[in-house]
Design brief:
Layout: E1 2-10, H1 16-27, H2 29-32, E2 38-43, E3 54-60, H3 63-71, H4 73-83, E4 87-96
Antiparallel strand pairs: 1-3, 1-4, 2-3
């Protein structure tokens, strides 16, 4: 199994409503794109200063399923429309579980 973890840091001018709309769009990816065996996305709990603003964790049965998800036009549209316009920083990792 392959785990995909992404940390998002929004720009300073990204308001709370836009952040919520972006996370809602990301939460629809399992229905719209699929391929993952588990999926979670949410905002940082605010317990430590300096953390990223949100995280996404998705598990895929194998690298092929991840690649299919990563290149899916519906996934790329969500990234282009909802994520990139508000992104100050992004970090990601994929690893075998």
């Amino acid at each position: 199994m392959l785990r995909h973890v992404v940390l998002f840091t929004w720009t300073e001018d990204t308001d709370p409503d836009t952040r919520a709309t972006t996370l809602a769009a990301l939460r629809r990816l399992p229905e719209e794109v699929g391929g993952m065996t588990s999926f979670a996305v949410g905002p940082d709990a605010g317990l430590v200063d300096g953390n990223a603003h949100a995280a996404l964790v998705a598990d895929f049965p194998d690298a092929e399923a991840f690649r299919s998800y990563a290149t899916d036009p519906r996934h790329l549209a969500v990234i282009a429309e909802h994520v990139k316009p508000h992104l100050a920083a992004r970090s990601a990792v994929q690893y075998e579980v």
